[in-house]
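1st attempt posting a full record on here, be nice pls
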Amino acid sequence: MSTELIAGPWTYADLEDLPDDGRRYEIIDGLLIVNASPIPDHQGIVLSLSMLLRDAAPADVRVLPAPMDVVLADDTVVEPDVLVARRSDFGPKNLPGPPLLAVEVLSPSTRVIDLNLKKERFERAGIPSYWIVDPADLHFTAFELVDGHYVEVADLADGDQWEATLPFPVTVVPAELRY
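the predicted structure (as tokens):
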């Protein structure tokens, strides 16, 4: 199944009424995005990144893989592949506001959405850091919010290394994300 876009307006209440059928449902500015379950290579990178970030995270921060709803507005609920947020920011069911870091692992069906629609919406929401990993060639790109706009701070190939400072210090080596 490829990604399906369904015009709205859709809201968080509508999202909660959708079936639990193995698909991933997100809404961005009222547009419903329906994705199939990810493939094993995608999930392996999500697991590796989650563990890397969890091991480096300070005690007051949580690192969680999808699915976890991030409610940016009533008409925008996303599920980043990995999210990092302060423990105190979580509600009982979701993260009701922007995380410190959102990570998306690209797939052929979500590539355009992750690189454009989500990036723009995350920027507007004020998410300080946005990381993108392309599993096809283990390419890693990191953006940080500067004066309300994303600026590329890392562009790594498979064997490169980067010392992130946000949301906390951690060394990212794309070649080590294979699982």
